[in-house]
Amino acid sequence: MWKQIPGLRQISQRTISTASRRQLGNRVPEKQKLFQEDNGIPVYLKGGVMDSLLYRLTMGLTAFGTAYVVYELLVASMPKKQK
């Protein structure tokens, strides 16, 4: 099969060999220091600005959803006026 498509074997070998050369550094110790640091910040906000935005979005959606459910329950509990 490889003799039919000579360039395919070279491409597959090149992709595999270049992928193994890129070694990512181990950043786990850095993250452990960040999250274990005792600075009064809750662990769910220690990731930075993105964690803060996600937290605020989640809390906003939760508050909106709760208010909407209470509103719908109030509307459902009121009898409709008969004409």
UniProtKB/TrEMBL annotation:
The keyword ATP-binding does not apply. It comes from the Eukaryota. It is found in: Mitochondrion inner membrane. One of its GO terms (cellular component) is respiratory chain complex IV. Its main location: mitochondrion. Belongs to the cytochrome c oxidase VIIa family. This is Cytochrome c oxidase subunit 7A2, mitochondrial. It comes from Falco tinnunculus (Common kestrel).
